[in-house]
Amino acid sequence: MSPALFSPHSEPRSVSKGRPAFGIPVLAMLLALASPALAVNPDEMMKDPAQEHRARELGKDLRCLVCQNQSIDDSDADLAKDLRVIVRERIGAGDTDDMVRKFVVDRYGDYVLLKPPFKGTTLVLWLGPFALFVGALAVVFGFYRRRRTATIQPPPPPLSADERRRLDALLKESGK
Amino acid sequence: MRRALFLLPVAIFAVLALLFVKGLTMNPRDIPSVLIDRPVPEMNLAPLPGRGEASGLATADLRGRVSLVNIYGSWCIACVQEHPYLMEYKKAGIVPIHGIDWRDDPALGAAWLKKHGDPYDRVGVDPAPGRAAVDFGVTGAPESFIVDKAGVIRYKHIGPISPEVWNKTLLPIIRELQK
Question: For the purposes of burial, counting CB atoms within 10 Å of the CB of B83, is it exposed (0-12), middle (13-18) or buried (19 or more)?
């Protein structure tokens, strides 16, 4: 039987019999070749490739405020398109990357940056995970240390004369 | 002490549950505006066709009186929802309402006002890429800004204005600023 993997008549068992399911590697290769569909339209692009590259890099870090979890570079929303156009205008006018970013942040706040800046109001955001990690480590260390101290106990006191007599009696009883 | 340790997961769960409940009841569209207490951006927007030569919206028009600036567009569905209330508030004559016809064909923007009524004193057209709207930090339509006598933005409302929003939030702010 030919390895017609996508034929509805092929038995599913034929794959598990050891014939390599080459459809999956092929699919993986095709997926690797696929590039994400960028929302940037050719007519928005700048003539200078270096400037266009800067606009792209900036766009990746700017949040689309309509879809919120996409960058303006990825989003098809009208507002994202407007911001892409305006970012390119600023670059064309000679703004540095920081100036462009400031231009957008001045209007939309830090929220527009997909990578929040490190400052007073974002300290918890940036340092919180590390603080939690250190806290967790402390708990784990505390746990193990207590376990170790629990196992290292002082040796039990020697048997008293009465206990020794009872032990001997028991041993004798069991025939040893 | 030992027993308290068993309660720890329960306590963590309770804290997380509280956080999630809080998160669920928050509106992710309510992005705090950085433009509060900043002067209205520089703009000089063209009028809508058929509304008169001098009916466009410029920065200087927003000085001298408390005003409400409303971002709308003929393509905006939620704007239809708030529009009857804007008509009502215009009739009440408490505050001048100005419109910015955002990302719109001016002819469509004008036709939309003919159909639904025109509550605006002045309307400026802000065609794509919506420079004035971006200067206002607009994230969607409708959005409304309360501007004080000095031409400073004092409040931003995202989404349609309802009688509840008007009576509980916007009107008290307007009244306060008008004093």
Answer: buried
